[in-house]
Amino acid sequence: MRFTYCPDCGARLSDRELGDEGLVPWCDRCNKPWFDMFPTAVISLVYDDRGQVLLLRQNYISTEWSNLISGYIQPGENAETTARREILEETGLEVDNLQLRLTRWFPKKQMLMIGFFAHALPGQQLRLSSEVDSAAWTPAESALDLLSPSPTSAARALLISYLG
């Protein structure tokens, strides 16, 4: 989102040269910049001790492709906290060995995706949230065929990174 008016005082913003940032929306009344904003989300590839990855079906996202666990970062959260929260909310699973693996710009939704690997603690049962239609543990080597082939797919990039 690019600001046109100052969120603090309501004045119309002008563009001002701001060092290496180039032209930035600027409030002359408040004497401060308003940088473009965009949503940030996490996406997590959850794996188990048998070399399987957890794939979700969420029809509101796609009726054709499986996907990984994802969700928006809430105010006050860091990316790691969000990843653990989303995994627990959507699948009921607790994880360890959370590893930051990649970041991707997702042009379709104009957002930044932060990708993690997460190891599912053994002995847990899936408890799916209402936003998940189904979930299945899938051999990692087979999972690529079930994800969107789009070159901008963060899920695909994360799985390719996992497969090494």
- Domain count: the total is 2
H and E string: EEEEEEHEEEHH
| CATH domain fold name of the largest domain | Nucleoside Triphosphate Pyrophosphohydrolase
CATH superfamily of the largest domain: Nucleoside Triphosphate Pyrophosphohydrolase
* Category from helices, strands and their pairing: alpha+beta
The termini sit apart by 35 Å
Radius of gyration, CA atoms, in whole angstroms: 19 Å
Number of strands: 9
- By DSSP (H or I, 4+ residues per run), the number of helices equals 3
* Mean pLDDT reading: 96
Instruction: Give the class-level CATH name of the largest domain.
Output: Alpha Beta
Query: Uncertain runs with pLDDT below 50, 5 residues or more?
Result: none
The biggest beta sheet reads:
4 strands, mixed
Specify the overall morphology: elongated
β-strand percent reads: 25-35%
Helix amount? 10-25%
The neighbouring-strand order within the major sheet is 6-4-8-7
Which architecture of the largest domain does the CATH hierarchy give at level 2?
Alpha-Beta Complex
Write a structural description:
The chain is of the alpha+beta class and 164 residues long. It has two domains: 1-37, Ubiquitin Ligase Nedd4, Chain: W; 40-163, Alpha-Beta Complex (Nucleoside Triphosphate Pyrophosphohydrolase), CATH 3.90.79. 16% of the residues lie in helices and 35% in strands. The protein has helices spanning 79-91, 140-143, 154-163; strands at 14-17, 23-27, 32-33, 40-47, 52-57, 69-72, 95-106, 111-120, 134-139. The strands form three sheets. A four-stranded mixed beta sheet has the order 6-4-8-7, sandwiched between helices. A hairpin with a 4-residue loop joins β7 and β8 (111-120). The chain is elongated, with a radius of gyration of 19 Å. The relative contact order is 0.20.
